[in-house]
Amino acid sequence: MTDTALASPPAETPGPVETKRDWWQRRYTFTGTAVGLLFLLLSMTPSLLPRGPLFQGLVSGAAGAIGYGLGVFAVWLVRFMQSRETSPAPPRWAWLLLSVAGAIALTIGILYFHSWQNQVRDLMGVPRLRWFNYPQSAFLSVLLLFVFVEIGQLFGRLVRFGVRQLNRFAPPRVSFIVVVGLLLALGISILNGVVVRGSMSLLNSTFSNVNDEMDPNNPAPKTPLRSGGPGSLVSWESLGHQGRLFVGNGPTVAQLTEFNGAPAVEPIRAYAGLNSAKGIRATAELAAAELVREGGLKRKVIAVATTTGTGWINAAEADSLEYMFNGDTAIGSMRSSFLPSWLSFLVDKENARQAGQALFEAVDAKVRAIPEAQRPKIVVFGESLGSFGGEAPFLSPNNIIARTDGALFSGPTFQNTMRDAVTLDRDPGSPEWLPIFDGGANVRFAARAENLTRPDAPWDKPRIVYLQHASDPIAWFNPELLFAEPDWLREPRGYDVSHAMNWIPVVTFLQVSADMAVAVDVPDGHGHRYVKDVVNAWAAILQPTGWTTEKTETLRGRVTQDYPQ
Predict the structure, then answer these.
(1) What Cα–Cα distance (Å) separates residue 40 from each residue in 10, 205, 507?
(2) Residue 545 located in a structural domain
(3) Same domain, 257 and 175
(4) Residue 265 is part of which domain span?
(5) If 0-12 CB within 10 Å is exposed, 13-18 middle and 19+ buried, where does residue 454 land?
(6) How many domains does the chain have?
(7) At what angle do helices 549-562 and 315-324 cross, to 10 degrees?
(8) Is 193 within a domain?
(9) What is the pLDDT of residue 164?
(10) Cβ atoms of 301 and 273 closer than 8 Å
(11) Helix, strand or coil, per DSSP, at residue 477
């Protein structure tokens, strides 16, 4: 072999000619797009509540992005199992076919969305969507889908970059596992350490400022029978926004006298805010002491009210109790958080549990110090997160029966442990959304007032009532919706749940999650709105002397008027 031959360059072997692909083909995968389109279509199927353009856009965008991610992951998994670096690109006609099929499917999906939305809105008495709401929803869906997919692709690029760097020192598969693990750990650490803490600090500060705002139209009470009034153990300012609203409102003596046709006494309302004492237990003891100071132990009924995260109490529940006993009542409560109920439930629910337990134990200790023959009735009530905290002092219905004279829990959450246990142990044949437990002996569930007589069997005392609507997403949301069909969709469903609603993995979870944000934006009797039926519930639980069905109907009308939609 000569030097010349050695110096000659080797002949080049012609390789495959790469077909020029369009921009979207280079940026997005065919399988991911197809699966994402399918999930987007499924997101337009019925859910519990009617959705406006904002939340429909959010659900569709998130569902489409999840579908795209699943499609991309499926392709990667096949390549990974086959030890292949790439997959053959789909032909141009496949993209064209997908585009045409997608356009037809989306048109059908929008028409179906329009149909079931009108059906559910008419069922609940909610105004129909306007024509411009549909392009709004479409725009938001596309925008959010793009944003979510781009975030996912950014993560993918980071993974590929990290793998290329680590491949110098480790096998490719080991590199991949290590890089993904490190990125996930880093992301979680950043979220927990920076985003979550910073967000919680900001939210606490924001809602603390809202809590401190004073309303000139709601001045401090001039009666010693209200917290923040003369002789009170707590200052008016320390009660917080919702505490001041609760203490400063309610039926007057004149209104009670007019309604019952007999001289009334002024109802007692005791409340302790987050700034009234240091720590949950101290705040509970202060609320109980305030109840005693106001003369609550001498009233016919003492009610322990557990609040939501903001300190809110369902005014219809408090007012109804006071009307039924012509003011001869005392209601004690306290606040456990600055955060709204939904946020408090996610990050601060232990405070609600501890507050509910501490408050009841503090009040109960005061009541049990009285000779048994002289003790007032003691009841507990709460709505939403308040029902969660209201259950906390009791391990079972038998404990409530032994220690109280009744309980009313409206709009229970999916983590109400006692509600869940009773529902799981319901009588055969009764549905999850309206269960019958132990033949209705002490505990009864109602979506409407007429359900209180269900079953047709003796109802012993003390009585416990759960008010929950079939369409209340607060009651039916559960992480298990991701991959498991719930009984409330598998069994005969409630009166206000669309028969067209079906469980779809992942999608139903997203839909019900979005429904929670609009749970109170529907009329009473649907979603998370509990007003007029609380009258029937209290009447059934306590059966006040001289109370009649006519009074129940009159009071229903009054609370509906006082607390309109």
Answers:
(1) 53, 37, 9
(2) yes
(3) no
(4) 213-472+519-562
(5) middle
(6) 2
(7) 140
(8) no
(9) 79
(10) no
(11) coil
Distance CA 461, CA 382 (A): 20
Q: How far apart are CA 152 and CA 150, in angstroms?
A: 5
Please report which helix (H) or strand (E) contains residue 361, including its range: helix 349-368
Q: Where do the DSSP E strands lie in 246-295?
A: 268-272
Cα gap 375→403, rounded to integer Å: 12
Q: Does 412 lie in the same domain as 283? A: yes
Segments of the chain scoring below 50 in pLDDT: 1-19, 194-196, 198-210
From the number of C-beta atoms within 10 Å of its C-beta (0-12, 13-18, 19+), residue 264 rates as buried
Q: What letter represents residue 436's amino acid?
A: I
d(CA 392, CA 397): 11
Q: Which position has the token pair 């009610």? A: 303
Q: SS3 for 151?
A: helix
Please tell me the distance from the alpha carbon of residue 510 to that of residue 482, in angstroms, as a whole number: 8
For residue 171, say if its preceding peptide bond is cis, omega within 30 degrees of 0.
Answer: no
Rg (the chain; Cα; Å): 30
Q: Is residue 17 part of a domain?
A: no
pLDDT score of 274: 83
For 469, residues 6+ apart whose C-beta sits below 8 A from its C-beta are 411, 447, 475, 494, 496, 525, 526, 527, 528, 529, 530
Rounded distance, CA 199 to CA 192, Å?
10
The whole-angstrom separation of Cα 55 and Cα 140 is 9
pLDDT (tens digit per residue) in 368-402: 999 999 999 999 999 999 999 999 999 899 999 99
What is the reported pTM? Answer: 0.86
In a domain, 18, yes or no: no
Pair 438, 523 in one domain: yes
β pairing state of 329-334 and 377-383: unpaired
pLDDT at 46: 93
pLDDT the model gives residue 187:
64
146 and 295 in one domain? no
Amino acid identity for residue 258 in this structure: E
